[in-house]
Design goal:
two-stranded antiparallel ribbon; alpha+beta; 66 residues
């Protein structure tokens, strides 16, 4: 089982039919399994993964400049 590191939870709202009847629905977070360099698997949201990759790229770019 992958370890969950994010605190994201489902967002609840109403689903509306053509007659505007309201029924509760949940929008689930976009959780992805990510394997780390040490072999550990974790669950993180797609947005967090995107930010992590961006920061990683920025760090490698800064190292190449030096």
């Amino acid at each position: 089982m992958a370890q969950k590191i994010t605190s994201k939870k489902p967002l609840f709202g109403n689903k509306r039919s053509h007659a505007m009847n309201a029924t509760r629905r949940a929008q689930k977070p976009n959780l992805q399994k990510v394997k780390l360099d040490n072999g550990e698997t974790i669950m993180m949201s797609a947005r967090e993964l995107r930010t992590l990759k961006k920061e990683e790229k920025n760090l490698t770019d800064k190292k190449q400049e030096i």
